[in-house]
Design goal:
single chain, alpha+beta, Immunoglobulin-like, 5-stranded mixed β-sheet, 4-stranded antiparallel β-sheet, 33% helix, Lipoprotein, signal
């Protein structure tokens, strides 16, 4: 009888120890994981906030640069923005910008094509663009290659409603003393721009 009671008591003690050990391990596992999760989650926003504070110089200048425009003209729902005008070493003037379609359909740029026979094949493009040097009283047309293709953007397939597309056009550079010109494309008002020297 005593042996049986001792064995039963020993089994109960072992069961209690096993349950207690299991509970301790469970609590330790949950507590450790929860603390780690909380510390990770808690530190991430703080780190992000600190990075945001430290990284303001990196993040904020990009937005103004994207919005920076040297000139902007609008006509018939189309907005033409000029973002850079630079004189290249080879005697070229390169103008870059963005065109935004604010109409209710696809805009193909057909009204911007050139009247010149050689450039008529360029279709919807900036082939009809020109720059006017008021000081020198001279008009410069878009450059073209030996095949008669303009050195400018061609709006393949058009621009969908509310979309914007980057563009470029190259011209012969006005004389070194000329720092201001007017950029013109058919159906748009002239855009006065300042030339910056290329690197």
């Amino acid at each position: 009888m005593n042996t049986r009671r001792t064995m039963v008591a020993a089994r109960r003690a072992m069961t209690a120890v096993a349950i207690t050990t299991g509970l301790v391990l469970t609590v330790a596992g949950c507590g450790g994981g929860g603390d780690e999760g909380k510390s990770d989650k808690g530190s991430s926003p703080t780190a992000s906030a600190k990075k945001g504070d430290d990284g303001e110089d990196k993040g904020e200048p990009e937005a103004p640069e994207a919005d920076k425009a040297l000139a902007e003209v609008k006509s018939n729902g189309i907005t033409l923005t000029i973002t850079s005008v630079s004189r290249d070493e080879g005697g070229f003037l390169t103008i870059n910008g963005k065109v935004t379609n604010g109409t209710s359909g696809i805009w193909v740029g057909s009204e911007w094509r050139s009247d010149e026979n050689e450039l008529k094949k360029n279709g919807g493009s900036l082939a009809g663009a020109s720059i006017i040097d008021q000081q020198g009283k001279k008009k410069y047309l878009v450059l073209r290659d030996t095949m008669g293709r303009c050195l400018c953007t061609k709006f393949e397939g058009g621009i969908n409603e509310s979309q914007s597309v980057d563009w470029y056009a190259q011209f012969p550079a006005p004389p070194e003393g000329t720092s201001k010109v007017e950029f013109q494309v058919p159906t748009m008002p002239p855009a006065p721009i300042e030339i910056s020297e290329g690197e």
